[in-house]
Specification:
Strand content: 15-25%
Oligomer: single chain
Number of domains: 2
Mean pLDDT: 93
CATH class of the largest domain: Alpha Beta
Strand order of the largest sheet: 7-10-8-9-11
Shape: globular
Helix content: 25-40%
Length: 248
């Protein structure tokens, strides 16, 4: 019996202190532990490969290193988290041993480690970029522009399918499930390199969603359907929710 294809992933968590709505977010205390450390621990538990925090902030680096993790200092003027991830991977892996780069946002302290494995499975399924979605169950989220929707045509109980569009609007129209996009990406390394070299496209500017730049350039994004969405911490109210969810 022939073994199937395998990948060699690295997880990179971009983090910076200068968050607009919640300054100092990576070091926000959640049950006595900085949020970035919670995210790092979840990534380690996924058991996919090395986990690196990419940050321009010395205090974030120190928190990660004190927890036993590894951090890479990135320039402060990089335009996005994706650029920070790309810069860090080039720094730690010039020999290109890692063929898949997982970009995990540093504000997802409740991410299920199994979901990270699903993102890599989506990449393994043929996509140049793997990502995650979950079915929207709260009707209020369907028209909430803060909830990014993914147009993915799952059929017959599929867990993996191609994503054809992302929007802040309620898409697709008509009867049927709607999916909440979870901002975790597993890039084929050449796809990440190509992506960060692209200029923002008109639809990206209109929707405020950088994944549309990838679709506009013809990069294929495959989505894995997971059962629940992790809490993204963007506001003080979100932080309080996270503290409740991570209570012992």
């Amino acid at each position: 019996m022939t073994a199937g294809p395998t990948l060699s992933p690295v997880i990179v968590i971009p983090a910076r202190m200068a968050a607009t709505r919640l300054p100092g977010k990576p070091l926000a205390d959640i049950r006595g532990t900085p949020m970035i450390v919670h995210v790092w621990r979840r990534a380690v538990a996924a058991d996919l490969g090395p986990v690196i925090v990419a940050t321009p902030d010395g205090a974030v680096m120190q928190a990660v290193i004190q927890a036993g993790g590894r951090a890479v200092a990135t320039p402060n003027d990089l335009p996005s988290g994706s650029d920070r991830v790309h810069w860090a991977v080039r720094r730690i892996d010039p020999e290109r041993d890692f063929d898949t780069v997982v970009n995990l946002q540093g504000d997802l302290p409740t991410i299920d480690p199994a979901a990270l494995r699903m993102a890599v499975a989506a990449r393994l399924g043929g996509g140049e970029i793997g990502t995650l979605v979950s079915e929207i169950t709260d009707p209020a989220e369907r028209d909430d522009p803060n909830v990014v929707k993914a147009a993915v045509a799952f059929t017959d109980g599929q867990r993996l399918a191609r994503a054809v569009y992302f929007s802040r609007a309620a898409v697709p129209a008509g009867e049927g499930p709607m999916y909440h996009h979870i901002g975790v990406y597993a890039y084929a390394r050449p796809a990440l390199e190509r992506f960060v070299g692209l200029s923002p496209c008109p639809l990206e500017r209109r929707e405020g969603l950088e994944q549309l730049r990838a679709l506009d350039a013809g990069l294929r994004i495959d989505a894995a359907r997971v059962d629940t969405s992790p809490l993204g911490v963007d506001t003080p109210a979100d932080l309080e929710k996270a503290r409740g969810l991570l209570a012992p």
